[in-house]
Design goal:
Helix content: over 70%
Number of helices: 13
Structural class: mainly alpha
Order of helices and strands: HHHHHHHHHHHHH
Largest sheet: none
Strand content: under 5%
Number of strands: 0
Oligomer: single chain
Length: about 260
């Protein structure tokens, strides 16, 4: 008991890091297995969406809303959106899927959440680099990338997804109907976040309604990192940072307040 009282914050941080690392390896084995098929599907899924959008909109229009490459335009939209939706989808069930492990006192409810978050972040980042890198090889004009804008947008998308997932891990088991409501509300975001259009091209008052969605701003920021000629005049980084910080705070506050419930539920 005296030894426990003498433990420093660094000791507890190191303990949680070891637990998260172990859970991360476990999640990788569970999700992707020992065969390469799981990794291949992680690449084929977004690639199929991008090809589908390219074929459909390429048949309708001769030129994308930005630049000259349909694959690049849709890839920058879809992959940026994936940084949000993949995190929130995968991390939503982190605590429930690892419920048995929470019986161990050194495993905190937040550990499986961060393990899944890190795995999804790494997976989406690797897929983004592979797909966007492949597309860039076929462009007539080499890309001039603004890495700050790209990384900033991806990080904000992931944090919005993390905030939602922290909140959902608590509310889903307490209020099952909310899980259905969240699914209904979350599904149309793909259509109204600017994946296959630019908010600047939408007439008022619909444009003003779309800009309430923070993911619209995330996608504008992400695309500005790939298109040097693109000036997203509607981008409001102040609004985006305030929303992300508040949403993440709500998620963390809810998760922390109900951490004992998460162990017992």
């Amino acid at each position: 008991m005296q030894q426990a009282q003498g433990h420093t914050p660094g000791y507890y941080l190191g303990s949680h890091l070891r637990v998260v690392a172990a859970l991360l390896i476990r999640e990788m084995a569970t999700r992707f297995g020992s065969k390469p098929g799981g990794y291949v599907w992680a690449i084929l899924d977004p690639a199929a969406y991008i090809i589908f959008l390219t074929v459909i909109f390429g048949a309708i229009s001769h030129k994308p809303a930005l630049g000259t490459s349909f694959p690049l335009f849709f890839a920058t939209g879809y992959i940026c959106f994936q940084f949000y939706t993949a995190v929130v989808t995968y991390v939503n069930g982190a605590v429930k899927s690892n419920k048995a492990l929470l019986s161990y006192p050194n495993v905190a409810p937040v550990d499986p959440v961060f393990a899944r978050f890190l795995l999804q972040l790494g997976t989406t980042s690797a897929v983004a680099l592979l797909i966007l890198g492949t597309i860039s090889l076929f462009l007539k004009t080499p890309l001039v990338l603004d890495w700050l804008a790209i990384i900033e947008a991806a990080a904000l998308a992931c944090l919005i997804g993390l905030g939602a997932a922290l909140f959902n891990n608590v509310i889903f088991p307490r209020l099952p109907i909310y899980e259905q409501i969240f699914g209904i509300l979350n599904r149309p975001l793909f259509m109204v976040s600017g994946v296959f259009f630019l908010p600047e091209l939408i007439p008022s008052p619909y444009r003003d309604m779309l800009l309430i969605n923070p993911l619209c701003h995330v996608l504008m920021r992400f695309r500005s990192g790939f298109y040097s000629e693109y000036d997203p005049g509607l981008l409001d980084m102040r609004y985006l940072y305030i929303f992300t910080a508040c949403w993440l705070f709500v998620g963390m506050l809810t998760f922390t307040g109900y951490k004992h419930f998460l162990r017992k539920e």
